[in-house]
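2024-03-11 09:14:02 DEBUG pipeline.ingest accepted 1 chain
2024-03-11 09:14:02 DEBUG pipeline.ingest length=407
2024-03-11 09:14:03 DEBUG pipeline.predict start
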Amino acid sequence: MSRRLMVHAAVVIVAGAAWTLGPVSAQQARKPAPPPRPPAELLRLSLAAEGPGLAEPFKGITAHGSIEPGLFGIRSTGVSTEPVRRAAEAFLASLATEQRRKTTFDVGDDEWRKWMNQSFYVRQGVSFEEMSASQREAGFGLLRASLSARGLTQTRNIMQLNHTLGELNDNNFEEYGEWKYHITVMGTPSATEPWGWQFDGHHAIINYFVLGDQVVMTPYFAGSEPVIARSGTFKGTEILAAEQSKALAFVNGLDAGQRAKAILRSSKTNNDILTEAWRDNVVLDYAGLRVSEMSAAQRQQLLDLAELYIGNMDDGHARVKMEEVRQQLDRTWFAWMGGTTQGSVFYYRIHSPVVLIEFDHQRPANLRHLNDPEVPNLEHVHTIVRTPNGNDYGKDLLRLHYQQHPH
């Protein structure tokens, strides 16, 4: 179904990301939230973002503009993907004919790249909002089979915080809400042929490619605005606290010489994340402190920090990916921008030939009526995990598969 038709059936809107660590002042709270935007405006914004974003064919994130060959290969991991395949089949079987038609795409379709972490994007697939209770359970069954317990909890918390965002916008549940998340399936679930699925909504995007018993789960986006629900239906819900606190502890554990290399700048006045939606082909050189200049204890700390992100995959495939990260550890870099004291806003990234992780405190996006829109704050956080050198969405594995098995 085209987006122009979809907008008449269901408008899907997703908010920006954020982090609420303190109460909003009474003066700020009196400011009214902006009114819901009409469907035609959401569609216009979506097409305006999508057109330029897809104008360039997929290449992948690189350090110098060229793909480094030989990093990925088709092999057995020894970790079964059968539970994921069965869950996907059960989910598709639960859908009505029209729902299934708008949810399924070819494995090579550009639908993989059609995701966005902003609130206005009009998405494809079937949404949890339109699912029956049994269909929702089948959808969560797919997530449960594919993610770790921690990854599933984080995803559900982001969904619930999207409801909180609606409450903070004068109960605007036309644009925000717990169920405004979509699933699409690319290819036919198979034990041998390539296929995958995508979960797409405000602050939560999961791309999950499967080939045999191999899995690529990037791009993976997680964020929220707010990151803590201070009130409302889901009061107490919180995400990304460890990803913030452990990174702060790590950078403060570096010696003076290491900090001088790792900290690219100590100020932060803008959004710094580089590889969000429509940024599949970013050229990003390595920068900061190289892991080869770290002690054994510091290396382990950095691996533990990376695992907080990679460990959102199911446990078996997370172990496989972490081993891939370890093999490139001496070619891994850590970079930081912003303050290093408690309460500071900052950006950091972990970057190697096989993984890119970004964390960013951002300016307000959907709580601009409550916070200074010109200043990054702890209420708005974006994170993303990428597989550089052409293997986001499993594209390099798909290329190798077609080389070995022409279709």
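2024-03-11 09:14:41 DEBUG pipeline.report The first helix runs from residue 3 to 9.
2024-03-11 09:14:41 DEBUG pipeline.predict end
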